[in-house]
Amino acid sequence: MPDLSPAQRAAIEHARTCYLNACELDVAVRKPGNVSRVSAGHGMQAQLFSASARASVGPIFRPGARVGERIEGAVAATAQAAGCNTNLGILLLCAPVARAVELHPESTDPATLRAAIAGVLDDLDVGDARAAYRAIAEARPGGLGAAPAEDVQDTPSVDLRAAMALAADRDRIARQYRDGYIDLFDLDLTSLAAALRGFSADQEHAASATVEAAVQRVYLGFLAGHPDSHIVRKHGAALAHSVMHAAQPWQTRALAGEHLNEDPGFAAWDLELKANGLNPGTSADFTVAALFIAGLVTPRAAPR
Q: Per-residue pLDDT tens for 199-244?
């Protein structure tokens, strides 16, 4: 284990809390099509996602570990805790951020954190790719299909960022590796952090109306802005576009300040998506990553 400075130890501890809070918000708030505490779906309960978060937090923040090691370790821990793939996309998005926090604990605003993540992405190597490929194979995400080059069923011959770049046109998570997390840092992270202030995963899964509204705005922004990659893989582009268009009026209402949970139609849409097997999993993964990053740019106590 590397010899960490007080600043690194404080930054990692803060990041662990932010990660667990983000994962808990994922199920504490209704996000149509996704599993939540008020609405199970796709053969899964919310408790599986909470258990996955607690199991994965150690490997994701293992001091000194490279990105691929963090992903592989967290996927293995999740499989043991949940017995299924609940969080592969979350882990792929959060692992580079976790390493950036350790290497650059002074990165506490959006600009410096984004630069730190860019440095981590630039440093990815073929070992990271091989570990990530093993993790993806273990998680067995639905609708993965085959790729013409550097397919995840093969042993990669390029570094992880290059491998992700080959998939970037068909997978939004891969695009973040190629493009430096552009979709996440295009958000107003400071305002999001302010809206989430005070939430804790230890609060018995409670979320205020303000926090719920903030999470739903983020989720609907991702879902209404692009066809969800997970739906595209499993059901095709046409259905993904139809879900995207259905999300747009709800996003407009959320941005106008309406409390969507007060409209029975919002819950009905959630149940309809689940009844049709439509899970906007990529939009949910992005939401967790956005909540995680927003927590990181919230001021924290100085290290002792």
A: 887 765 567 889 999 999 999 999 999 999 999 999 999 999 999 9
Ordered by start, the domain boundaries in the chain are 6-207+281-296
Query: Above pLDDT 90, what percent of the chain?
Result: 80
CA dihedral 99, 62, 211, 265 (to 10 degrees): 90
CB 212 within 8 A of CB 24: no
Cα–Cα distance for residue pair 41/49, rounded to 1 Å: 12
Cα torsion 120, 126, 127, 133 to 10°: value is 100
CA 290/CA 102 separation, integer angstroms = 18
Handedness of CA 15, 71, 286, 150 (dihedral sign): positive
At how many degrees (to 10) do helices 88-103 and 172-179 cross?
20
Task: Return the CATH number of the domain spanning residue range 6-207+281-296.
Answer: 1.10.4200
Q: What is the mean pLDDT of residues 75-84?
A: 91
**3-state SS, one letter per residue, for 66-94:** CHHHHHHHHHHHHHHHHCCCCCHHHHHHH
Say if pTM beats, i.e. exceeds, 0.85: yes
33 near 246, Cβ under 8 Å?
Answer: no
